[in-house]
C-alpha cells in the first residue's frame, strides 16, 4: 500500500468538496483490493441531514463500481478547530465496517509528513457487522 499516494488522492478528492454550510472541506481516498483508488469529498445539503461525508462518498463510488473489499482509506480535511486529525464520524465507521471489518487501515493525515495510522477495529471496537446476521462480508 502506497500511503503517500493514498494521502495525495484524498487531497485530490477534497478539491471537489461541496460544503457551503460548514465551510469545512474533507477528502477521502479508499484503496480497493482490485488496486483501484476511489476518491470522495463531503457533499452537504441545505437541510443538513442528507449530507454525505467524504468517506462514504468514496466508499459508495467504489461499491457502485462493483468493489466489495478494501485495504485502506486516507482522510484529510481543511483543518479542525485546533488542527486535529479528522477521523471518520460514527455513521462512516459503521458503513466502512459493512465492507471492511476490523483490519481496514485508516490513515488520518494533516499532510503527507504528518499522519496517524490506525485501524477500523480500533476506531469501532466490537463493531456490528454482516457476520452477526450470518452474512458474508
Ligand atoms: N465530515 C466528513 O466529510 N468526514 C468526517 O470524517 C467528518 C465530517 C464532513 C461532514 C460535513 O460536511 C462537515 O464535514 C462538517 O461536519
How many separate helices? 4
What is the CATH C level class, in words?
Alpha Beta
The name of the CATH topology is Cytidine Deaminase, domain 2
Number of domains: 1
SSE arrangement, N to C: HEEHEHEEH
Q: Can you put this structure into words, describing what you see?
A:
The model has no long low-confidence stretch (mean pLDDT 95). This protein has a single domain (3-131), classed as 3-Layer(aba) Sandwich (Cytidine Deaminase, domain 2). A hairpin with a 4-residue loop joins strand 1 (26-32) and strand 2. It has helices at 3-14, 54-64, 90-100, 120-123, and strands at 26-32, 37-41, 70-77, 105-109, 115-119. A five-stranded mixed β-sheet has the order 2-1-3-4-5. The protein has four helices and five strands, in the order αββαβαββα. With 137 residues, the chain is of the alpha+beta class. The protein binds tetrahydrodeoxyuridine.
What are the SSEs and their pairings?
Elements: H1 3-14, E1 26-32, E2 37-41, H2 54-64, E3 70-77, H3 90-100, E4 105-109, E5 115-119, H4 120-123
Parallel strand pairs: 3-4
Antiparallel strand pairs: 1-2, 1-3, 4-5
In short:
This protein has about 140 residues and is α+β, with helices and mostly antiparallel strands. The chain has four helices and five strands; from the N terminus they run αββαβαββα. The chain has helices at about 5-15, 55-65, 90-100, 120-125; strands at about 25-30, 35-40, 70-75, 105-110, 115-120.
